[in-house]
Amino acid sequence: MAEFSKILIATNNAHKIEEIRAILAGTGIEIVSPRELGVEVDPEETASTFKGNAIIKASEFSLAAGIPAFADDSGLCVDALEGAPGVYSSRYAFEGCTFEDNNNKLLDALKDVPEGKRNAKFVCVISLCDGRNLLSDFRGELSGSIAISPKGDNGFGYDPVFVPDFDKMRSRNTRTLAEMTKKEKNSISHRSNALKMFASYLRNQLHS
Ligand code: ITT
């Protein structure tokens, strides 16, 4: 297995960098951002799977920086829409659209789908690459359903229309992710689930 003490986060999204650093803080591995290394890359996400897009991002950043890099790719998959919007989650309504445009299009697409048949899940895949080589990947999911109308002001993206199946206490939940605190969301989210697996992999790397 590759030996490393420093890895690059393959994203230019400052929000993500902060969240990811917090979760990986205890691993003993230094996490650097593209800005800190002076690396400028903006890869096109052309794959048809989350894993494929995560690999594109991680390997392009790794090649540019000369150190291993990891990327996450995430999105929402709705059963009644055969997995859409999936890898197109950020540009579901149209290229350059807002989160609100996406939520409106989603609620419209599901207007004839009754409660109980609006199952969906958030997926997050993290890939760690050394140049073009995929070293490992991790998948986190969060199951839930799509609300009839948006609720809540927290979070981003599809959070106002996504109701996770269970809350932390394993009791039935009725709140959307946008009605939860950042801490509550981070304790159950697809991204934190994948990041926790990644953190444990990194700890094993250092101690093996
Ligand atoms: P990169 O630059 O790292 O690629 P991105 O902004 O494209 O980041 P993602 O690929 O991770 O973000 O996510 C794609 C879309 O999926 C995002 O724009 C949201 O619409 C949706 N999404 C992902 N995670 C979400 C979450 O936790 N809550 C709500 N929506 C989410």
Q: Could you explain the architecture of this structure?
A:
The protein has 208 residues and is α/β, with parallel strands linked by helices. The chain has a single domain (6-207), classed as Maf protein. 32% of the residues lie in helices and 22% in strands. It has six helices and six strands, in the order E-H-E-H-H-E-H-E-E-E-H-H. A six-stranded mixed β-sheet has the order 2-1-3-4-5-6. A hairpin with a 2-residue loop joins strand 4 and strand 5. The radius of gyration is 17 Å and the shape is globular. Bound molecules: inosine 5'-triphosphate. Residues 11-13, 16, 72-76, 89-90, 102, 122, 155-159, 189, 191 line the site of inosine 5'-triphosphate.
Which molecules other than protein and nucleic acid are bound?
Answer: inosine 5'-triphosphate
Question: SSE order, as H and E?
Answer: EHEHHEHEEEHH
Biggest β-sheet: strands ordered side by side in the sheet: 2-1-3-4-5-6
Alpha-carbon Rg, integer: 17 Å
Helix content: 25-40%
Q: Within the CATH hierarchy, at the fold level, what is the topology?
A: Maf protein
- For the record, what CATH class applies? Alpha Beta
Descriptive labels:
single chain, 208 residues, alpha/beta, Maf protein, 6 helices, 6 strands, binds inosine 5'-triphosphate
Strand and helix layout:
Elements: E1 6-9, H1 14-24, E2 30-32, H2 34-37, H3 50-65, E3 69-78, H4 99-109, E4 119-130, E5 133-146, E6 162-164, H5 182-188, H6 190-207
Parallel strand pairs: 1-2, 1-3
Antiparallel strand pairs: 3-4, 4-5, 5-6
The structure holds inosine 5'-triphosphate.
Inosine 5'-triphosphate is lined by residues 11-13, 16, 72-76, 89-90, 102, 122, 155-159, 189, 191.
